[in-house]
Amino acid sequence: MMRTVRDLGIGMLAVAVTATAAHAQLARTRGVELADLSWQEAEAVLTPDAVVVIALGAAAKEHGPHLRLDNDLRMAEYLKQRVLAASNVIVAPTITYHFYPSFLEYPGSTHLRFETARDVVVDIVSSLAGYGPRRFYVLNTGVSTLRPLAAAAAVLADQGIVLHYTNILEVAAEAEERVREQEVGTHADEIETSMMLYIAPERVAMSKARKDASPREGQGGLTRVRGRPGVYSESGIWGDATLATVEKGRVVVEATVTGVLRDLETLRETPVPAAGAGERR
C-alpha cells in the first residue's frame, strides 16, 4: 500500500479516493429505476409528488478520434447512477437520439429534426404524467439539445407539467473555469475529455487526442471543409484535448453532480402550473 501511495502521488490518491467513495455510494441507491419495476410497482411510486428523471445522451455522435461515438450516453448513464444513489427520484429509460445538427459531416453521427426531438420528450413526459407525476427533469448532456428542451418545457407547461433540464454550459461553469487551460473549445475538448478520463478512462485514447481550435466563422456546426460556415475541424474536436487530466475531470464531474442535485431540489419546490399556462404549439 505504501508503494501505491508513493506511485500515485497526493493528487492521484485524492482522485482514487473520491472515485472509490462515489462507487460505494452507487451501491446505496435512494432512487428507483422505472424499468426494474412491474406495472403494479410503478403504479405505487408514480405519484403526484414524485420527481421523474430522464437522462439524455447521444448513443452515436462523433467525439474526435480519441473518444467513442457513445461518449454522451456513457456520461448520461454515469450521472444517472450518481443521481439514483443520492436522490429520491424515479429514473425513466434514457433517451439516446435527439437534436445534434452540428456533427453530421462526421460518419456515425445521428440527428433528429428539431420538432421530432421536442416531441420525443413531450410524448415520453406526457405518458408518464398520465399516471400522476407532474415534475420532470431531463439529465441533459448536450448543448444543441437545449433549444428543443426549452420548447418541450413550454408545451408541457400548457398541460400543467413542470419540466426542468440540465444546462451543461452552466451547471459546472465555475469548476470548469478553475481548471480550464485551453483558449477555446466546447466539444471533445480539454473539459469533456477530462470528464471521461474520470468516468471511463478505458474509453479514452489519449494517444489520439489533439488540438483543433479554429475560430468560428459565421453560423454553423463543426465542418471538415475549410471555408464552410461554422468551425473547421478535421478531427471533430473543438478545443485542446491534449490538456485533459483525470484530476480536472474529477473537479468538473463532481461539480456537475452537485449542480444536478441542486437542480432537483429546486424542481421539488417549483409550483406546478395550471393547465393552459404554457405556450401552445
Describe the structure.
The structure is a single chain. This protein is of the alpha/beta class and 281 residues long. The chain has one domain (15-268): Creatininase (Rossmann fold), CATH 3.40.50. 41% of the residues lie in helices and 12% in strands. A 5-stranded parallel beta sheet has the order 1-3-2-4-5, sandwiched between helices. Residues 1-10 and 22-26 have low confidence and may be disordered.
Give keywords:
Rossmann fold, 10 strands, disordered N terminus, five-stranded parallel sheet, three-stranded mixed sheet, alpha/beta, 41% helix, 281 residues
Apparent shape: globular
Number of continuous helical runs: 8
Major sheet: arrangement of strands: 1-3-2-4-5
- Please give the share of residues in helix: 40-55%
The CATH homologous superfamily is called: Creatininase
Q: Could you report the average pLDDT, rounded to the nearest whole number?
A: 91
* The top level CATH class name: Alpha Beta
Number of domains: 1
Question: How do the SSEs run, as a string of H and E?
Answer: HEHEHEHEHEHHEEEEEH
What is the CATH architecture descriptor?
3-Layer(aba) Sandwich
Major pleated sheet: 5 strands, parallel
| Fold-level CATH name | Rossmann fold
Please give the alpha-carbon distance between the first and last residues.
62 Å
Class by alpha and beta content: alpha/beta
Report the portion of residues in β strands: 5-15%
Radius of gyration: 20 Å
Ranges where pLDDT stays below 50 over 5 or more residues in a row are: 1-10, 22-26
Q: How many beta strands in the DSSP annotation? A: 10
